[in-house]
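Before any further analysis, we paired sequence with structure tokens, yielding the entry below:
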Amino acid sequence: MAWSSRVRLAAMGLVVALAGLALVACDTRPPPQPGPEAVATTPAPPAGTPAATGPGHSTAQPAARATSQLFLPQVTQGQAARTPRPPAVALAPPTPAPPAPGAPTATPTPGPTRTPGPTRTPRPTPTPKFPPPIAEPGPSKLGLHVINNNSHDIMEFVRVTKPRLLKAVDDLHWLQEAKQASPQTVTIGRITANDQRMEGDPAARARAFVAEQTPKYNAYRDGVDYWEGWNEPAPKTREEMAWYAAFEAERVRALAEMGLKAAVGTYPTGVPEWDLMEAFLPAIQAAKQHGGVLALHEYSAPTMQFGVGAALPGRSAVPNRGTLNLRYRYWYEDFLKPRGLTIPLVITEAGIDGGITNRPGPPEARGWQDFGSYWESQGLGGDSLRAYLDQLAWYDQETRQDPYVLGFTVFTAGNPPGDQWASFDVTDVLPAIARYLVAQ
């Protein structure tokens, strides 16, 4: 295209643009209310003209014609900005129409009242199995004989009652724990002997016996205060008694060399006879020299009082001594006290034993559990445990009168079910015995 043609076209475009501006300038319509993005080009009023005041602008200068304004859209990155939408106006909820005159006013009907459920009955607080523990041994001398520590109640009994005396046979591991729970409790240990024949040299036999049991002495020495030897020997002649006394005296000395103490004797109930007691004094003398004690067993049946007040063969009756229970008083009053040989006494088995002869009551009965019906027939009550506890309490009161008695152990706890000693067992009634002890 020729240069002159380009000039003509440019001139024509300039004319069209100027014409458009003229038309906009001459537009007399009221300008639209500018948005926030419009740019106002209204010229300032001349000096001296009063400013518009008041809500109606009543003092504004009357205009001959509309002021020309030019509104240019604001361009952002090549596009015109959108005019923002006016804010939403919250609408008030409609006001309900008032009821017509004379119309009944509706009364709201309440819903059904909820019926409360039944009040839950509070559960009663369970009674503790054992009473609260005491801090130290009380005045009672009642203790416990244990065959097997096969129940948690046995150690709980020890922790609660702090018994003065405990006796264990073969199963001795728990005695150390018992001493920790009750340091003032005196503990007796016995290991079953295989040979109790009164034959050979008594001193040599005693040394061999101690040597055989030494590994267990060392294993359990922290839990055992005194060691028994044979169980329930029954010398029938003065010679047998002298042999056994020599055996026990040497056993005392052998244990003392190891730093251990002995419980000598361990006779069954009703043994020995009065005329044999003097022959045993050498063993008592050895025990006194090395800090030992005398051990005896005392039982009776059909009640623990049976035989009290009866006389030993060749002796006169004494009201507070017995042929079975309280027989120990013959030992102390007739032999040990007059000779200055009073040593502590431990009664390491006690209770009811139907195995004694020449007694009343059911012949087949053995332990205390077998005598309940007989006790009821004799007016001792229908509760066999209560009747047995009353008898143990009587024996307890008697032993408290003798300061040399350290205590007595009720035979027995920890008996395996179905064993020969099942009717003697007190494991299940230990809480009741504990309540007696802590109440003293």
In short: The radius of gyration is 56 Å. Confidence is low (pLDDT under 50) at residues 1-5, 21-84, 86-92. Residues 75 and 81 are 6 Å apart (CA to CA). Residues 142-438 form a domain with the TIM Barrel fold (CATH 3.20.20).
